[in-house]
């Protein structure tokens, strides 16, 4: 079938003709569809049985351009292949933490998957101060298992490089290289920001030490092929409810630095923390929820590090430092020290990438709903100025960090006194 962009009418016809959907929808069922894509790249349809909406699926289709920028910004449709490949790999390594895949049509650049109808995108409930008791355990399991089992710590060199070859994703990598690490820090037509932070944007663009550090982080993103990373793992790519966490939107997946995924999760929790200076007027409620968010930062890193190292100890069969390598007197201690250094490097990389992503949200092409939903630009600027200071410090001070408490400490230092300012 030749490629064509679907709409709410034609997508129903497409699903009816798809044999894989016979297991989801009753034969002859009346179907309806609605387009719900509010992302930057793709069309997203929910298809339901009119008589029984529990029978449903999601169809996601790539457009031949960057949706947020329009047809003037062409973009390969091959990204849907990467998303599907990643979802299949995730289902293999972390079943139950991503949607199930029902069908993939490469020619039509689409995938049909499980409809997570009882979940919601994580951003909005965080703004509403909801709590998710299983999130830390589940998201840390996802990142630890995917990142370990696709790395040189577990795979043979041949197996890893073969898998890498399936995820060479240059077009979407370039989007991140440009929009995270380069364009926000110079004149570029797609950049946008709150005019109340003009002075801070100019300061970032003129900060030589910061721009050197960001260039170093970009070099790592482009060359440090540690594991299969999601590469867009923020709270807009995570769906949750009280019992369940699912990761979606994996079209950016490629072999890159582990810290990029972890940094994305942590910095999005921090940005949500900052958004409550506007979203939560009551000081007590605000302090309690902001403390909860910082505990999530601590716990996500802590549980990831614990699970990742446990997997490594129990499955040290890759070719980087295989088990026989440590078979000498004192080898166990040497292996423990190597793991300690490796994890310390991951934390520093997490800080650097998290800081870069925090900065780009303030002055690049795409901000986040947590902040853009603040209508008062002066209130919004309070959070944005804090984010610029915190993000800059995460990048610049990453070499001196020794624990996740140092990352949280920077947030606490930069937000000290904000309550008094708001009250005054």
Could you explain the architecture of this structure?
The chain has helices at 10-16, 79-93, 123-127, 135-149, 157-166, 170-181, 198-205, 208-223, 258-279, 283-314, 331-363, 369-372, 377-396, 404-415, 418-423, and strands at 31-35, 42-49, 56-62, 101-105, 110-114, 120-121, 227-229, 238-240, 245-247, 254-256. The radius of gyration is 22 Å and the shape is globular. Helices cover 51% and strands 10% of the residues. The chain starts with 9 loop residues before the first helix and ends with a helix. It has 424 residues and is an alpha+beta fold. The longest helix has 33 residues, at 331-363. The strands form three sheets. It has a five-stranded antiparallel sheet, sandwiched between helices. It has a three-stranded antiparallel sheet with strand order 6-8-9. The protein has a two-stranded antiparallel ribbon with strand order 7-10. It has 15 helices and ten strands. The mean pLDDT is 95. It has two domains: 10-114, 2-Layer Sandwich (Phosphorylase Kinase, domain 1); 120-423, Aminoglycoside 3'-phosphotransferase, Chain: A, domain 2 (Alpha-Beta Complex).
């Amino acid at each position: 079938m030749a490629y064509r962009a679907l709409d709410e009418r034609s997508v129903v016809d497409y699903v009816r003709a798809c044999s894989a959907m016979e297991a989801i929808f009753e034969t002859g069922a009346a179907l309806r569809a609605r387009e719900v894509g509010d992302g930057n790249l793709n069309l997203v349809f929910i298809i339901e049985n009119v008589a029984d909406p529990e029978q449903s699926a999601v169809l996601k289709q790539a457009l031949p351009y960057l949706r947020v920028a329009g047809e003037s910004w062409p973009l390969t449709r091959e990204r849907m292949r990467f998303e599907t490949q990643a979802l299949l790999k995730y289902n293999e390594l972390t079943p139950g933490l991503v949607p199930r895949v029902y069908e993939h049509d490469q020619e039509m650049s689409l995938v049909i998957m499980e409809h997570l109808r009882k979940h919601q995108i994580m951003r909005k409930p965080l703004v509403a101060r909801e709590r998710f008791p299983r999130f830390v355990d589940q998201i840390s399991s996802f990142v630890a298992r995917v990142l370990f089992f696709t790395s040189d710590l577990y795979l043979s060199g041949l197996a890893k490089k073969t898998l890498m070859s399936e995820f060479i994703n240059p077009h979407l990598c370039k989007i991140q290289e440009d929009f995270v690490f380069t364009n926000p820090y110079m004149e570029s037509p797609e950049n946008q920001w709150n005019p109340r932070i003009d002075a801070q944007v100019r300061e970032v663009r003129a900060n030589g030490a910061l721009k050197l550090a960001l260039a170093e982080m970009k070099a790592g993103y482009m060359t440090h092929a540690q594991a299969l990373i999601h590469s867009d793992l923020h709270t807009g790519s995570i769906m949750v409810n009280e019992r369940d966490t699912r990761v979606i939107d994996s079209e950016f997946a490629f072999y890159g630095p582990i810290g990029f995924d972890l940094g994305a999760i942590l910095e999005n929790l921090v940005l949500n923390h900052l958004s409550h200076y506007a979203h939560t007027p009551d000081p007590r409620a605000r302090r309690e929820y902001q403390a909860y968010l910082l505990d999530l930062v601590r716990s996500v890193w802590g549980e990831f590090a614990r699970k990742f190292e446990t997997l490594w100890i129990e499955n040290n069969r890759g070719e980087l430092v295989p088990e026989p390598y440590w078979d000498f007197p004192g080898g166990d201690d040497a292996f423990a020290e190597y793991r300690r250094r490796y994890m310390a490097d991951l934390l520093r990389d997490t800080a650097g990438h998290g800081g870069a992503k925090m900065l780009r949200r303030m002055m690049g092409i795409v901000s986040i709903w947590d902040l853009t939903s603040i209508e008062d630009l002066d209130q919004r600027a309070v959070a944005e100025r804090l984010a610029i200071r915190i993000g800059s410090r995460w990048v610049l001070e990453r070499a001196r960090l020794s624990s996740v408490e140092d990352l949280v400490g920077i947030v606490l230092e930069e937000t000290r006194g904000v309550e008094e300012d708001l009250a005054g």
